[in-house]
Structure formats: structure tokens, C-alpha cells
Amino acid sequence: MKMNKKWLVLGAVSFSALAVAACSNKSSESQSKPISMPTTYSAPEKATKAGNDSTLNVAEVVDAPFTGITLAVLQDNVEDSDVYSPGGGDQLFKSNKDFKIVKGGLANLKLDRKNNTATITIRKNARWSNGSPVIAKDVEYAYEIIGNQNTTAQQYSADMATIKGMAAYHKGKAKSISGITYPHGQNGKQVVISYTHLSPAMQYAGNSFLWGTVVPYNHIKNVKISKLSSAPAVRKHPIFVGPYKLHNQVQGESTAWVPNKYYWGQQPKIKHINIQVVSSSNAAAAFKAKKYDFALGGLPASQYKSVKDIKGYTLAGAPGLSYGYFGFNVGHFDTKKNKNVMDKHSKMGNKNLRKAMLYSVDLDKVNKKLLSGVQWRPNTLIPPIFKKYHDSKAAGFPYDMAKAKKLLQEAGYKKKGKWYVQPNGKKLTIHFGAMQGSAASNEISRYEVQQWRKLGLNVQMTNGRPLEINSFYSILGEPKQNKIDVFVGGWQLTYEPTPTQFYGEDATYNMGHFVTKKNTKLLNSLNNNKAWNQKYRIKQFKKWQVYMNKEAAYAPQSTLLSFTPVNHRVKNFKQAAYNNYLFPTFWDQLELTSRDLK
Predict the structure, then answer these.
(1) Is residue 11 classed as helix, strand or coil in its secondary structure?
(2) Residue 410: in which H helix or E strand, if any?
(3) Radius of gyration of the chain from Cα atoms?
(4) How far apart are the C-alpha atoms of 387 and 496, rounded to whole Å?
(5) What is d(CA 373, CA 462) in angstroms, rounded to the nearest whole number?
(6) Which of 137, 201, 427, 455 makes an SS bond possible with 217, Cβ 3.0 to 4.6 Å?
(7) What is d(CA 340, CA 345) in angstroms, rounded to the nearest whole number?
(8) How many CB atoms lie within 10 A of CB 210?
(9) CA distances (Å), 406 to each of 29, 352, 400, 411, in order?
């Protein structure tokens, strides 16, 4: 089963350590494509008792400590999801190769279109790692956390409001969610959720209408929802439903795991797992020194050449569901109405200005020359891995400096000395927010600034340098801010591509605050009653992609192959498009053929 969190914040998007100075008006390189790589690796030798009694050493490559939030419903970054993934990610459902929810997970799902209900039935032998049973309240309470006015969870959106009573609860007008009931009581094994209407997306893992994880209600019930993210029950003494339970951890640095004897599935083979944070600059050297069996989130694209031929390892990789994007600050979040608002006179409100900045950066050349096909420029905000929904005909924003200058001039921007000024003649200074990362990602951020200044725009990095990831998202998370005008962020999607939680009017993750009636209408059309017809739904997805490229308030920046070296003592490793290391198809399948790395 894959992660049911709709969006996860990614760290800085990885690029090569060299910047490319574009020397022509149009890119001389065609859009780069990913290289091919096997998605699996399994050592040919038999697994041994000595190997499985030893420790599986796993790297989490990131340039900042992980936050340490164990509950999936509260997590907003992929690093926390990674380091706690042996615990199962709190996952409810199982999905097939087409990403559809099927029977066989912690719980089964039944959708009733006639009555607009979703019935969740928990398996009888489902238990938490402390031995307590998984109950109906554990399913329902996740919705209370999401909808609570004082929550730190960022999953609420118009999609979630289709649950009857959720909007009233979210506004503080009701103490409970009327549309969620328990046929056999809170301690039973069944939950029925009533909706205003069912949506096609609800058939798939990770949709934004039906939450796909549980929370240990009895373990956390005495903690205020507003305090959950910092509570010892979540941070220091968490419990899990997956194949492993937490043995110990060093906050922000590592987690250690042992088998969970109460796990409902098959018992895992490996007795000890250690997951360690490794900086992107040290990752390649660590694998060459045989410190790790594999990396969870993969390695930076810039390190492909350094690790592709390491003795004792085989690379495994797959096109990811993550992507980097450019975002422009065009408004603010109204905390009273709980929705994003476009500001008519925002600095970045002119779409020609936004498009000019996008056309002036030669991403194709960067990728093809320096990244060996591991990373490439996508052309829309729906990654190409979604073959049905992706608009492959869209051009996106290939490099064209002449076009960029023409767009500025057509919009009334004029040169005054070295820099363009606003159409009203006022000075124009643009603040760029970039995340601090590896030398590679920091260098590409400087390249982007270089190109924008070459265009004639006075672009400066916020605080004069790349920002630490938590500081970066702290600024963007403010309801109204003027420290960042344009930024490069990253998201990891699930298997259901509906983007309402990111680009919707009431989406907390809409940190550029882009809102239009047409965008709302198009987003709603992706899951209306007509959208049960697959042809119609595909057509609407493509219309939305065309519209977003036209508006350019958000634009795709990069997508990549998620790859890692896998040590030759590991059996049954699979690198999938998404967080494949979540149960029940990854951790409980792994085995080792020797005590030490080969």
C-alpha cells in the first residue's frame, strides 16, 4: 500500500554542482528524458539466519534533521514519512498495480454511490504495536484532527468538506462530524462516512476525499489536537500498525526498529533496522565506504555518476511522483474565511512577468548536459507518470530569452538603467526563496538568479542565501508575507493526481495563493458526477494543465528518477514510483544473505 498523504513537502530539488550559462536565445537541447534502470534487485544467494539477525543499514539523504512527527496525519515532509516507514505509515488500505484500493489491507473499503457512503471495515486481527486493537475511533479521529480549527495538520480542503458535517466541525459550529458513524460503536471495527456525493478519485490510494491512515486514539486522546505534534505520545513514545515497532531514536538523526509481534501480516525477516540521516554531500562517499544497504528517498541526481559503478552494489530506480515547481506569491490567506485570496496589485500579479522568468531559465540544457538523464524538465503540473491524465503535447516553458524580453515589454515593463521597472514606473526588486541543500542545489539556485538578472530583473535571494528548509516553509506558511516573491519548492504526490489540496482556494498548501473562478471550476470538474466517465475526466485534467501553464502562477521545474544503490546482500528490494517502502509490500519482504555488507 502506498502513502495516502496527498502531498508531502520535499527538500531542495537536486541539481548538478555546475551552473550553465545559456548562450543563445533558444535552447539547443531537446527536452531531456530519463534513463532506464531496473526497478528491483534481489541477491541470488539464499537468505541466512546470520544475515537476518544482523542490522539492515538504511540512509535517509537530507540536509537537515528530520522533524520527528510520527503520525502520518500530521506529517508535512517526506523525511518524517521515510524514517518512520517501517512502522507502516499508519496505512489503512492496500492498492493494486493500477493504484486502485483493493481488499487485503489493514481495512477494506466499500463505496456505495447510491447512498453516497464509504464503509471502512477493519480486519479483526489488526493491532497497534502495544497490543491494543485498532478500533473504529482510530479511523474517525484522524478526520477530527484534519478538520479541527486548531490543528497543525494541513490536509483540509474543499474535497474533505464533501463529508457531511465536516464543514460545520471545521468552522467550530459542531463538536463532532455528523457524517461519520459507527455501526458497532467506537470500539467496533466498522466506520461509515456519508458524503454529499462520491468522487471518482475515492477509488484510488492517496485521494483527498477519503483519508487513508489511522491514529491511535486511546494513546493520544488526552492530548489537545493543537498540541499533538509536540506531544511525547507522538514524538517519544509512538505506536505503530506496521511490521516493525520503534526500538529507539536519536531525534532528528536516526531511528532503530525491531519486529512488531502484533503485526497482522507476515512477520518481517530482518531483526534490526537502523535508518540514519546522511547529508547529500556525504551520501556517495558513505556508499563507497559500504555504510548503507540502500537509501530510502534515493540519492541526488548530481551523484548518479559517483555511485553507478560502486562495487558490491546495483542501482535500482523508477520515475518518481515527486516534482519541483516554481511558485509566485500573488496573494494571501484569509484566516477568517479560511481561504486564499488573490491580491490585485501584487508584485508578481502580471502573468507576462511570471512567464518571462520561466522562459529565461534553460532547464533542458542543465539536465541534459549535467544530469545524465536522471532529472528532466516536465511540461505540466501533472507528472508524466500519470500517463492517462498527463498532457504530453504541452510545451511547458522551454528556454527562450528573446521571448522572455518580449513578454516583459508587451506588459509595459521598461528598462531604467540596468533593471526593468514596473509598468507604473516604480522600482522592481524580486525576492527569490530557495531551499538550502547540497552544493548542487545551491548552485542551481544561483544559476536561476543569474539568468533572471541577465533578463534584466533585479532578483535577490531572500536573506542573501538559500534558506534552511524549515525557515523556508515557515515564511511561505505565513498567511501574508512579502519576504518571498518567487520560490522553488517540491512535492511528492500519491497515486491519485487530483491537485485540489495544493492549488485549491482553501488549500493550506497553496502557498502562492493563486485563486480564480476558472481554476476552482476546473478543479471541481475533475471529480464531479460526470468524471466517473474516464474520457471526460481525462479531458478535464488536460484542460486544467493547459490553463495552469497559461496563468503561470505555478509552473513545473523538474522531475527525476528516484534511484539508489542496493547492496548485494539484500533480497527482494523494489524501487517503485512512490514510497514503495511502506507496508505491506516492502519492509516485511526484505531479507539479507550475509551479516555484513558486501
Answers:
(1) coil
(2) helix 401-410
(3) 24
(4) 12
(5) 31
(6) 137
(7) 15
(8) 29
(9) 22, 9, 10, 9
* C-beta separation of 350 from 485 below 8 A: no
Contacts of 336 (CB under 8 A, 6+ apart): none
Distance CA 377, CA 366 (A): 9
Residues of 381-411 as b/e, b for ≥16 C-beta within 10 angstroms? Answer: bbbbbbeebbbeebebbbbbbebbbebbeeb
pTM of this structure: 0.79
Read off the C-alpha cell for 337: 474565511
Classify residue 269 as exposed, middle or buried by CB count within 10 Å of its CB (0-12, 13-18, 19+): buried
CATH class as words, domain 40-318+564-592: alpha beta
Beta strands 254-259; 244-250: pairing state:
antiparallel
The sign of the CA dihedral 233, 588, 206, 200 is negative
Contact assessment for residue 433 and residue 467, using Cβ atoms and an 8 Å cutoff: yes
Domain boundaries, the chain: 40-318+564-592, 320-560
Query: Would you call 538 helix, strand, or coil by DSSP?
Result: helix
Burial class (CB in 10 A: 0-12, 13-18, 19+), 374: buried
Cell of residue 213, nine digits: 491512515
Which three cell numbers, joined as nine digits, stand for 10? Answer: 520535499
Residues 6 or more apart whose CB falls under 8 angstroms from that of 94 comprise 1, 101, 102, 103, 104, 105, 584
Read off the C-alpha cell for 434.
530557495
Residues near 474 by beta carbon (within 8 Å), at least 6 away in sequence: none
pLDDT tens for each residue of the chain, 598 residues long: 233 333 444 444 333 222 233 333 444 444 555 678 899 999 999 999 999 999 999 999 998 899 999 999 999 888 999 999 999 999 999 988 778 899 999 999 999 999 999 999 999 999 999 999 999 999 999 999 999 999 999 888 888 999 999 999 999 999 999 999 999 999 999 999 999 999 999 998 889 899 999 999 999 999 999 999 999 999 999 999 999 999 999 999 999 999 999 999 999 999 999 999 999 889 999 999 999 999 998 898 888 989 999 999 999 998 878 889 999 999 999 999 989 999 999 999 999 999 999 999 998 887 777 677 788 889 999 988 888 899 999 989 999 999 999 999 999 999 999 999 999 999 999 999 999 876 667 888 999 999 999 999 999 999 999 998 889 999 999 999 999 999 999 887 877 889 988 999 988 889 999 999 999 999 999 999 999 999 999 999 999 999 999 999 999 998 888 899 999 999 999 987 554 444 456 899 999 999 999 9
